[in-house]
Here is the input.
Amino acid sequence: MQTDKNLLLANTIHIYDDTKDSIQQTYKNTTFTKCIAYAILFALSLYGNMHIASANALENEFNSLGNPKTPSQIQTPDESIVNTKEVQVRQKNGILESNELEVIDLYGKSKTEEKIDYTHCASYYRQASLNLGNGLYAIKLKSGAIIGYSPTLPKLKNLVKYDPFVGLFQVHGKVDTRYAYELSDIDDYALSRELASTGIKGAKAGRYQAKQTGFLQYAQFSVPTQRNGVISNICYKIYGLSVGGNGFIEKSYIDRFLNQNRPYYGDIGVRFDVVSAESATFVVQFADPFFPSNPFKRGDILISINDIAPKDWGELELLIANLAQNEHVQVKIKRGEQIKNVQVKAGRRYGGMLLADSFLERFQLGISNDLIVQRVPSKGPFSKLKKGDKILFINDVDMRHFKPRNTAERNQLLRELFTRIQGTQVDFLEQKMADDAHKQALKRRNADILEQFQSKEETQERRNDFYYKMAENMENFVSSDIAIGANPTNQGIHKNNNLHSFSGDGILRDSDTQSMRTIYDIYSFGTKTTKKNKKERIKEYEALVEYGGQMTFLVDRQGFQFRVPLE
Here is the structure.
């Protein structure tokens, strides 16, 4: 019966067109007959419009039977088109395609209201998505990838990969190949026209409001989004994957996930905070003391990374995240009033974003909110701890004063404490570098003095002289391990009553000199020095502990207290 109605309509339109042409040709030369012709045409026009409306109603009835919806071939005037351009929409391989990437409103809404009925997009979503159970869905892209979003690891047998930092996952499964989504960057259409938030619960019209400015700073839509829904302009073309609330993930972040074999985010050992979004000013808020050779401390203001000054938070996050592991990174910072250029080797990030971030994640160490050790790594600095240890002190900080109410507060507490320890480490290492530089400068000056001394005119009498023999071996003194500031010792000094004061290069010599070693000492800016033996040599770790820059845990273990140094 439906076919008969459509056939009747087609015949009616055909008769209308033939009659119109015939009347215009026959009566074109007479005024009276023109009036009759126009009257007949007007009547047929009314009849034709009535049947055009009936045709659209028939089409709606046809579509309601569950067959794929196709654009009407019989259109009322401009009201049925979103804009006034000639829009051609066709169905190809089960996908609606348009030469203008617009949507024909099959339900006759006014173009001035710019309202589009997106119920057909809701039907398309059901065909282009995969139900994973427990209310979890994934969508199929034209590339063939099936992706979704879950803030926690989904327990799926067909899971291909999961990014715990941002919650994106990929699965394999069977979805009708005729239905898939084309992922697009935000374009002029998205910025200026009405879009749809579509999901398993239906579609709702709205508008794009804000771009994505970070891994968790999602793009914003004007109406609520459904988790694992899509933001689209026509059924198959989408701008992102919805995460719920009003947010959705844009194409560039999805592409980054798909292009990696396994999730990777670069790290330089710090967590930045935004001081001023307008001027793109970022400051070190937390610094990781476990990050190898970390040169940063709290308060450092970022100027550039590899000569790139990030313009916003999203650019900063991507810049660091995309650093290759072990890449040597040049970072310019402002510390106080001083501009510093530091170098750091990029590493892999272990915590942050959707993951816990206490700076302990790299060690696989688990600590409860009441600071009891839950999980201990088999190797590494924390392997000396035992499951069940209660952390009492970290260095000289009494941890019993703190009562974290949740995991976020515990992580905040640990990051704060570790950042202070990192600052102490940086201060110590800077002082050590300054001392080393000073020592090297002294060695170079003393070497110059010795060179002048040895270049004097030699005589046979001086060749066997005690001073000359000592001068030949002076390099041993210059290269020896000298501890600046220690008390001098007279042990091992050879007494010789024949020693005398001397000159020769105009530099003052001490008349009470008993050995060449003392000559070396008096040119150390008046600082008394001595050589340390092996037992007195301090390792950098031990110096850091003494300075407060390394870490020691005091724990309670079954009623006994143990101090556990982290080497």
User: Anything to note?
Assistant: The first helix runs from residue 2 to 26. The mean pLDDT is 75. The two ends are 86 Å apart (CA to CA).
